[in-house]
Amino acid sequence: MTKYRWAIAALLLFSTTINYMDRNVIGFLKDYFCSADGFGWTSQDFSYLTSIFTLFYAGFTLVAGWIIDKLGTKIGLAASLILWSIAGICSAFMGKSLVPHCVARSLFGAGEAGNFPASIKAVAEWFPKKERALATGIFNSGSNIGAMICAIFVPWCLLTWADGSEFAGSFHGWQMAFIITGILGFLWLIFWGIMYKAPKVMLKNGKINQAEYDHINSDVEEATAPAKEEDNNKVSWGKMLTFNQTWSFAFGKFMTDGIWWFLLFWLPTYVKQQFCGGMSPEDTAHTVMITNFIVFGVAIVGSVYGGALPMHFINKGLETYKARMTAMLIIAVCPLILLATQPLAGAAGIIAAVAIISIAGAAHQAWSANLFTTVSDMFPKKAVGTVTGIGAAAGGLGGVLVQLLAGYCDGTFGTETAYTIMFGVCAFAYLIAWFVMKALVPKYKQVVLD
């Protein structure tokens, strides 16, 4: 059997890596934006920027998922990447005022909204159900890789294009960070255009053999579905809201997406405030970089292993949905360890805190890989983009609330109290999400569209 489907997973991995590089640039520029030598923003200003981005991301995922189901995976993801890359480059030319940056980040959020609906749809097209969580875990690990690259790349840009440096010219380091990450998206687009086509087309072109094609379409209910299920013109966005399965996925995203975004945008700030008092700027930058490498590196393991965990239960004889929910319950317990972050941070220092946050980050990525896959478990392929978009919108709304809460706590309370509150919110989010999801969909039921 050929294994071209894993090349598709690799393409999605790279697109998500680029996506999160573009997204994380602002997280690693926060100190510059909020410094007297930079833009002079406050932490509350920064939270407005990230919240507005999140709000637009959430709003446009509703439309993006529906559009991708109409246009198809290849065109939909390409259009999404072009928009977010252009918006990212435009951020380099917005000056120091908050409002223009909010406009650029709004457009960026609108473009970025298509990445996950398109990627999940591609996984549904190219993988049988038992492999989808693993494939999702692989491409979803790009969110960690992108954050790790940014931890090195953004400081390098700030130093390389600093005033007085050899390469300093008309652009500053913060501008080059936006420009270079934006250009990378267009390079990926070349490979996407050449390599991605539907499995049926790849079978005709000889890129995959009959054995792989049959494996991709091995799920009984999809193999026997009537031909009209492939008619993309009959997907109704409103009708998706009538299914408990849609609300189950949306609530899971609402409760947990903001937790990951909190880590992405606020982890560097937490490390500096909690552990870097009295350090030189160079030592502080080094500490933040190492911390991010550890946290997001461990999260890669969580993403891939968490995606493989349901396969273990499936091989033991559990049906797909029960295996998925069993794995997610185990994963949902792990973030409770965050309740010990601040007590151990005071007693044992940065090593203990980073170890705890790393476990929680890995748990989130494991959760996310399985949560995304519940959509393709229960919905026909033609509706996957629409439902993923609805869930991503709910996740974005939850992300807005978490960003605003983080900004309020950081500006109102001391570091100890602020992050005790935030880690407490993060700790219980997954268990609450799991119990509500289980109540909405107690047993597996495939959605059939008329």
Describe it.
This protein has one domain: Growth Hormone, Chain: A. It contains 20 helices and no strands. The protein has helices spanning 4-28, 30-33, 43-71, 73-90, 98-112, 115-126, 129-140, 142-160, 173-195, 199-205, 210-216, 220-223, 237-240, 244-275, 281-315, 320-333, 341-348, 350-378, 384-412, 415-440. Helix 1 (4-28) packs across helix 8 and helix 4 runs antiparallel to helix 5. 52% of the residues are buried.
What is the topology?
Elements: H1 4-28, H2 30-33, H3 43-71, H4 73-90, H5 98-112, H6 115-126, H7 129-140, H8 142-160, H9 173-195, H10 199-205, H11 210-216, H12 220-223, H13 237-240, H14 244-275, H15 281-315, H16 320-333, H17 341-348, H18 350-378, H19 384-412, H20 415-440
Helix pairs in contact: 1-4, 1-6, 1-7, 1-8, 1-9, 1-14, 3-4, 3-5, 3-19, 4-5, 4-6, 4-9, 6-7, 6-19, 7-15, 7-18, 8-9, 8-15, 14-15, 14-18, 14-19, 14-20, 15-16, 15-18, 16-18, 16-20, 17-18, 19-20
